[in-house]
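User: I'm curious whether this sequence folds into something compact or stays loose and floppy. Could you predict its structure so I can see for myself?
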Amino acid sequence: CHHVEFLSPSNGSSFREPPLEGISLHARVMAEGETERVTKVVVVGGVEALRTEEASISLQTEGISSPGIVKIEIRGLDSRGTQLYKESIFVMIANVEHRGLNNITCEAMGIQRAEALQARAGFGSSKWEEMRHCLFHFLSLWPDNDAANFHLARLMEAEGDFEAAGSRYGLVVEHGVTQLQSRVREVELLALQERDRRSCTWRSLGTCEAGADESCPSRQSIEDVEISKIVNTSSMYLSVIMVTRHDNTQFCQVPKDACLDRFRASISVLVSLLKETNLDDDAELILVEWNPCYVNSKKEEGACDDRGERYLSVEEMVKDLVEARQTKLVIRILFVSEEVHDSLYNPYDFDLMEFIGKNVAARRARGKFLLFANPDDVWSHAIVNQIARKKLREDVFYGTFRGFVMHHVPVNERASAASMRRFVETNSESSEFHPLSVAHVAGRWRKAACLPDENDEEPMRSELYGFFHDSAAGDFLLMPRTMVHKIRGYPEIPTNIMIDGTAIHAAAAHGFGQLLFSGPCVIFHQPHPRSYNTKGSMISLQAYESLAQQLLDAKEEANHRPENVVLEERHQRVEEALEWHRYNDEGWGLKDVDIPQVRLVASCD
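Assistant: Here's the prediction. I'll summarize afterward.
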């Protein structure tokens, strides 16, 4: 008969001293009628830490322990290696100075939970539901565990349940963790702000319900049929342009409907930041819905296959998922139908043409400056605040560094723009110090002013590839509208691969300079798998570098199709007739195609 007594730590103990450099273990093994020596094996977190034949065990593990549940076992083995007994305890570790959210699971306790079903699309990954389930289970056994209460409070805060988070943090403070007092005040203030916020919804300026077919009367054609009227008049400062849809690609469905979660976080935070910086009444958000699945007739295997559940329209995505604050922002949804898509030259059978879609919006945008972006990025307050100062230059195109959100953003029913923004701010890292482009590696980029007391550096201008920062340019490219029209937008080459960087080199060829926002003026990219639309590479890196240099060499003819080249029909072998660095004609952005639109505005009680 053997009995293992854990003197310290005890079962359910809480470790919360940052950083925790190892665990001190003291235990005693008592045996009755033992006839041979027994080897005691101590296993910490699944790793053997000690073997001894002594009855008293003292151990100090090395290294910094990660936050979460740690299982400590003591096993008794006879001379043949047969296990005679095993006793274990569980301890919870927290680092209260670390603001990031860790994914805590109960696998160490032998408890696994099947993937939780979402309440509805766009309202969260099961990952954080698993963490909630685990923490409540742990606290049901050891309700006074400070580390578990701290982790649960942080999850509640990330999910927007600020009132419950404040109560949980308060329990930990009562037990002497006074450094959390400021956190309690923060979430209590956020709870008050959310309670006082007016209830708003998105209303379409039309009569049809979302999801109707493309003949729906709410999809009015753009009033200014002559695009020159839009080009030559500037009715607002900024147009933010994105291409999106709900489909069945791995980009959208791994995990299930995760693209809707990312869309919700990205657009909700953007809307709130435009409101907070007073730019909402001088800006528009244009979402291009390209060849949408919910009205797509092609149900074969692919992006729009029949998955047994209906796809959402972009109008539904905005109305169902995006937080409608008391904002003056107008969201315009431009609809590029399957019929229009099928009319385009498409030798590689892409079913979404991202950069032609961005050109469609650019031709019809009303802002003095156009910002090409993607609905899976979350912008920092600093970068929106800098744009809102309205000191952008018309001889410069702007980029920024793209940081990375470390986890799937919690977007359950209670999540708000405030909670999602706080999560991204505390669970992301910047790429500014991790070179991603030739110019970045060489330190050739030039800095744009970010804070009020800063000034722009001299813009980068060059005739050589490697002097312009072009990494992830599709996520953030800010240009004056006049510049976009001068270079004829993105080259409408029939692919989605590496086209973002070609617009940068076309602009440079036309004599414009580049500045990069940096420091706090960045964006953060939410993690996702690549869509099969962008999986692999039709253009190799070497071919892209060659194309970029050809654009620079072409100077003011860059991306301008030679006047003597006339295509008799769109589906002929375009690449045989055109050089890719001189691709677009005056009809770029589907100039002569009727593009229906829906406009959405916030309506508040």
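Summary: The two ends are 71 Å apart (CA to CA). Confidence is low (pLDDT under 50) at residues 207-218, 221-229.
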